[in-house]
Design brief:
By secondary structure, the chain is mainly alpha-helical. The chain is about 80% helix and about 0% strand.
């Protein structure tokens, strides 16, 4: 089928061939549009991906959750925030924000724009809060320098039944170091030791060094490394 051929060309790096096939299709369904949007995104052609999405909407093709997730992440990762807000409004109008992937993409967009309140409201509305979406929130707090909020999120993360992973620990350690939360950082260090991450994950080891350095404990920083 056309869609399988387009997907094959995109995976092999032949975007021009995929575009040609797309243009030749007598009928394009949602999957066809999604494939080419993802193809543009994969090749770093952000503007083209967003423009193609606009054409999709103008031609009356109904998006699905994959469409919104892809376009929203494209907008947030490339700084097309106004376009991202427009896509977000459309997802809300279609009642699709309960979808895990769309909700996560909206949270990410809001946090990257510094719209913390909006991002947290979206987080509250999500039927399930996963490790991935919490990492997006923690990353946003760290980028904005909201160190109290970083550490303050941890009890709620645990109450959501989300298990700490290496990336989450790195964000929490960054919050502890910059916020001078020494006791909490040391507790997280113990968790990392029990999980075996200090020896196996370079990012965790570096996060520990940064934490102890920020707290003025250079000896502990050297031991961590």
């Amino acid at each position: 089928s056309y869609n399988r051929a387009i997907e094959s060309h995109i995976k092999s790096g032949s975007l021009a061939c995929a575009i040609q096939l797309f243009d030749e299709m007598p009928v394009r369904d949602t999957i066809s549009w999604n494939l080419l949007i993802s193809g543009y995104k994969r090749h770093g052609m952000t503007r083209e991906a967003i423009e193609l999405y606009s054409q999709m909407v103008l031609q009356g093709v109904r998006e699905n959750p994959s469409t919104f997730s892809s376009v929203l992440s494209t907008c947030s990762n490339s700084g097309f925030y106004l376009e991202g807000l427009q896509v977000q409004c459309r997802a809300i109008s279609l009642g699709l924000t309960g979808n895990l992937y769309i909700g996560s993409a909206i949270v990410d967009l809001c946090m990257q724009m510094g719209l913390v309140g909006a991002g947290l409201r979206m987080l509250d509305m999500m039927p399930e809060r996963t490790c991935a979406v919490w990492n997006l929130v923690l990353r946003g707090f760290c980028e904005l320098g909201l160190w109290d909020e970083v550490l303050g999120s941890y009890p709620r993360i645990k109450s959501d039944g989300v298990e700490l992973n290496e990336l989450m620990l790195c964000y929490l350690m960054q919050g502890c170091g910059n916020g001078s939360f020494v006791d909490q950082g040391q507790q997280l260090h113990c968790h990392a030791i029990r999980a075996g991450w200090v020896e196996t994950n370079l990012f965790v080891a570096n996060a520990l060094v940064d934490f102890y350095s920020a707290c003025g404990s250079l000896g502990d920083a050297q031991q961590s490394f």
